[in-house]
C-alpha cells in the first residue's frame, strides 16, 4: 500500500465496496452460466451464445476488480460462501422462461451499475484514479451489455416468446 500512499481508514471503505462489487459480479456470472445451460428449446442457441459472451466478459470484470483490490494493498474475497453472504444479488432458479432469464439479467446489470456508481463516487473522493479508470471501464461495458439486452427485449420480444413456447 506504500505505493498508493493512502491511509487505511480512508481506503478501507473503497476496498469494502470493491469486494461487494466482486461478490455481486461472481453471483451474476454464475447466473449467466446457469441461464446459458438452461435456455433450452428450438431457437435458443442465439440466446445461449449471448449468455456465454456475457459470462466471458464478466469473468474479465471480476478478475480486474480483484486485481484492483490487490493493488490497493488488500485481499479480494474469494470463497463461494463469502460471495453469497456479501452479494446483494440473488441466485436464480435454473428452469425459467427465456423471457424471464433476459429480464433477470437486465435487472442484475442495472444493480451492478448502481454498485459501480457508488464505488466510483468514493474513488473520486479519494482521488484514486486507477480505481476510477476501472469503474469507468466497467460502467461503459455493462451499459453496452444492458442496451443490447434491452434491444433484444423490445425488438425480439416475439422471438423470445417463441422460444419460451417451444420449451
Structural account:
By secondary structure, the protein is an all-alpha fold. The termini are far apart. The relative contact order is 0.18. The protein has helices at 8-38, 45-71, 80-86, 98-125, 129-155, 157-166.
The residue fraction in helices comes out at: over 70%
Mean pLDDT: 89
Task: Provide the CATH superfamily.
Answer: Ferritin, core subunit, four-helix bundle
CA-atom Rg in angstroms: 17 Å
Strand content: under 5%
How widely separated are the two ends?
53 Å
CATH topology: Ferritin
Spans of at least 5 consecutive residues with low confidence? none
Largest sheet descriptor? none
Secondary structure blueprint with pairings:
Blueprint: H1 8-38, H2 45-71, H3 80-86, H4 98-125, H5 129-155, H6 157-166
In short:
The chain is an all-alpha fold and 167 residues long.
List its salient traits.
Ferritin; 167 residues
Amino acid at each position: 500500500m506504500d505505493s498508493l500512499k493512502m491511509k487505511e481508514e480512508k481506503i478501507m471503505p473503497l476496498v469494502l465496496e470493491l469486494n461487494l462489487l466482486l461478490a455481486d459480479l461472481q453471483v451474476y456470472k454464475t447466473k449467466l452460466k446457469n441461464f446459458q445451460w438452461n435456455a433450452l428449446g428450438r431457437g435458443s442457441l442465439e440466446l445461449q451464445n449471448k449468455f456465454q459472451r456475457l459470462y466471458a466478459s464478466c469473468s474479465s470484470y471480476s478478475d480486474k476488480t480483484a486485481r484492483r483490490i490487490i493493488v490497493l494493498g488488500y485481499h479480494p474475497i474469494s470463497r463461494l460462501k463469502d460471495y453469497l453472504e456479501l452479494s446483494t444479488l440473488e441466485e436464480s432458479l435454473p428452469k425459467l422462461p427465456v423471457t424471464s432469464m433476459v429480464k433477470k439479467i437486465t435487472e442484475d446489470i442495472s444493480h451492478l451499475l448502481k454498485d459501480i456508481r457508488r464505488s466510483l463516487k468514493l474513488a473520486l473522493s479519494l482521488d484514486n484514479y486507477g480505481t476510477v479508470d476501472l469503474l469507468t471501464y466497467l460502467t461503459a461495458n455493462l451499459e453496452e451489455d444492458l442496451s443490447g439486452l434491452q434491444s433484444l427485449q423490445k425488438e425480439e420480444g416475439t422471438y423470445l416468446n417463441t422460444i419460451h413456447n417451444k420449451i
